[in-house]
């Protein structure tokens, strides 16, 4: 399912206009992105938690030449599913 499918499904189930649903969805995603960029957690009880994690620097290898390269430390987004989401999937 992509974003368009999600907007269409929510619109059909809620009776709201597609443009309204898309505006709300874009707002939610924007707020989650902004919070993560500040280093905050976004916790949706029962659904899951969006957070950032530090990935330490390491030595990798260039696949073409085999020479070692240094991969710098980075911060990556992560999602941990909540209990209700886990139960619904199983």
List the helices and strands and how they pair.
Blueprint: H1 3-14, H2 18-37, E1 42-44, E2 48-55, E3 58-61, E4 68-71, E5 74-81, H3 83-89
Antiparallel strand pairs: 1-2, 2-5, 3-4
Helix pairs in contact: 1-2
Considering the chains and any ligands shown, give keywords for the structure.
two-stranded antiparallel ribbon, elongated, 3-stranded antiparallel beta sheet, 3 helices, alpha+beta, DNA-binding, 90 residues
Give a verbal description of the structure.
The chain is 43% helix and 30% strand. With 90 residues, it is α+β, with helices and mostly antiparallel strands. It has a 3-stranded antiparallel β-sheet with strand order 1-2-5. A hairpin with a 6-residue loop joins strand 3 and strand 4 (68-71). Helix 1 crosses helix 2 (18-37). The longest helix has 20 residues, at 18-37. The protein is elongated, with a radius of gyration of 19 Å. It starts with a helix and ends with a helix. The model has no long low-confidence stretch (mean pLDDT 95).
Percentage of residues assigned to helices: 40-55%
Oligomer type: single chain
Main sheet overview? 3 strands, antiparallel
Spatially, the strands of the biggest sheet line up as 1-2-5
Which series of helices and strands comes N to C? HHEEEEEH
Mean pLDDT over all positions: 95
Q: What fraction of residues sit in β-strands?
A: 25-35%
Please give the number of β-strands.
5
Judged by helices, strands and strand pairing, the structural class is alpha+beta
Identify low-pLDDT runs: none
Q: Tally the helices: what do you get?
A: 3
* Termini Cα gap: 19 Å
Shape: elongated
Radius of gyration, taken over Cα atoms and rounded to an integer in Å: 19 Å
């Amino acid at each position: 399912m992509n974003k368009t499918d999600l907007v269409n499904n929510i619109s059909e189930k809620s009776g709201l206009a597609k443009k309204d649903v898309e505006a709300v969805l874009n707002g939610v995603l924007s707020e989650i992105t902004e919070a993560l960029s500040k280093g905050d957690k976004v916790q949706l009880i029962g659904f899951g938690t969006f957070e950032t994690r530090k990935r330490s620097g390491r030595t990798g290898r260039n696949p073409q030449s085999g020479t070692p390269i240094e991969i710098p430390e980075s911060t990556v987004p992560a999602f941990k599913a909540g209990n209700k989401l886990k139960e619904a999937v199983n």
